[in-house]
């Protein structure tokens, strides 16, 4: 066996345990064949859940912090069907401004701008803080809640 072939095989064998660790249960990875995040959010908004304060993929389900009838809730939502798996009252969180765009509109605008692989959304002070994956890695973007415009985009290290 050539030195190069031996080196490639040894490198692949050494990387296998690391791949198993990164894919361990409990990882915040998305399950296969999930609905687009904008569709899940729109479905929840149409069911009376708004405004959102946070949305993240956690243990293979969407975890949403959202209001309904002015009461804060935490929801666990199936990413394949949009079904609410659990709902319980939560602590109050700062909300986007009252005349802000709904989160589904923000996400639709971001998708049109090429930000469609999103796994974490949270309202922080004045902006939506969103983690999105691009070709060059994970980015943290800040989005104006009134206009839906990206006001900053930085590679998240």
From TrEMBL:
State the name under which the record lists this protein: PepSY domain-containing protein
Note one Pfam family from the annotation.
PepSY_2
- Look up and give the organism this protein is from: Lacipirellula parvula
Source taxonomy lineage?
Bacteria, Pseudomonadati, Planctomycetota, Planctomycetia, Pirellulales
PepSY domain residues: 9-87, 95-153
* Signal peptide annotation: 1-19
Note the superkingdom of the native organism.
Bacteria
Q: Which InterPro entries match?
A: PepSY
Keyword Phosphoprotein listed:
no
Bias (Basic and acidic residues) ranges = 79-98
Region Disordered: which residues? 79-101
Keyword list, A-Z: Signal
């Amino acid at each position: 066996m050539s030195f190069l072939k031996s080196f490639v095989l040894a490198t692949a064998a050494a990387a296998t345990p690391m791949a198993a660790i990164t894919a361990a249960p409990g990882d915040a990875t998305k399950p296969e064949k999930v609905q687009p995040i904008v569709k899940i959010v729109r479905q929840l908004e149409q069911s009376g859940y708004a405004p959102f304060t946070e949305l993240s993929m956690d243990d293979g389900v969407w975890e949403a912090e959202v209001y309904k009838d002015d009461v804060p809730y935490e929801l666990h939502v199936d990413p394949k069907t949009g079904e609410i798996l659990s709902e319980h009252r939560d602590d109050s969180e700062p909300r986007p401004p009252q005349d802000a765009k709904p989160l589904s509109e923000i996400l639709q605008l971001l998708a049109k701008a090429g930000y469609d692989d999103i796994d974490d959304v949270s309202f922080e002070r004045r902006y939506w803080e969103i983690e999105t994956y691009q070709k060059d890695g994970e980015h943290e973007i800040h989005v104006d809640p009134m206009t839906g415009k990206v006001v900053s985009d930085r590679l998240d290290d």
